[in-house]
């Protein structure tokens, strides 16, 4: 079947599946209700130093893991390894290991530096089923737009979505390689990217915005006994809490808008050089940032990210199977 027709059928299918999500969202907007209720939370206790630490750990971990992966693949020169298909899978695996190391080490160091709790990192198991629902609804609401933009770039502008994982998946048809690549795309990438771009970066930007516009509400830690007295910022003061978002934040925009935009732009920018990837991913990242802003939990955006990557991997798998036939 023609590739354009396949893409069009898929877009129609995903649009049909998304109809219930659009109906629910439209109904809430018609009634003057927010798409997603803003949930009370404390602003995060880390600052730019902790974000810089996480970035440094990422760069060092990437360098070390990629060198190890290159040696395991039997190469001595990185430039040679990057252009040899035999090193493709080991290098991707090394990058995935580096991402997971960044997540674990950053979490431990920031916990020790700031006294943050699991809830500060968005790790709250209480409303897990509701958060999973939020994530899937977010995916359904935005996925048709994302895939439409991707189609425009692919078939109108002739700029294809290009990613090393996609190339590796297309080059390797054995089940072991497919399983490894799927784990990288569906588990490692969403976990580390949501942790850094939403929790660490956007969480810090939102904390700065709350303080900058003067709408922070200092409340006793006793109002939040589950957080404990250890929640302090680097100055030793209790982290301000926000029950409802102020009307205006930076630049007079709704509170949280600028942090969402900045984190989304940075998320899209790390995909530069991957063809059309930054454009649809920017749109999707805005939704991920919205989910985190309204809940300040990791699970909703993680599930939405997981759903997008899983759908893309299924499409690649089906395309590979069709091509093999």
Name the features.
single chain, 325 residues, mainly alpha, two-stranded antiparallel sheet, 1% strand
Give your account of this protein's structure.
This protein has 325 residues and is mainly α. It has 10 helices and 2 strands, in the order αβααααααβααα. It has helices at 3-30, 48-72, 78-82, 88-114, 128-156, 164-171, 175-212, 257-269, 278-295, 298-324; strands at residues 41-42, 241-242. A two-stranded antiparallel ribbon has the order 1-2. α5 (128-156) packs across α10. The two termini are 12 Å apart.
What is the radius of gyration? 21 Å
The fraction of residues assigned to DSSP E strands is: under 5%
Percent in helix: 55-70%
Biggest β-sheet: strands ordered side by side in the sheet: 1-2
Describe the structure concisely for a colleague.
With 325 residues, this protein is mainly alpha-helical. The chain contains ten helices and two strands. Strands 1-2 form a two-stranded antiparallel ribbon.
SSE order and pairing:
Elements: H1 3-30, E1 41-42, H2 48-72, H3 78-82, H4 88-114, H5 128-156, H6 164-171, H7 175-212, E2 241-242, H8 257-269, H9 278-295, H10 298-324
Antiparallel strand pairs: 1-2
Helix pairs in contact: 1-5, 2-4, 2-7, 4-7, 5-9, 5-10, 7-8, 7-9, 7-10, 8-9, 9-10
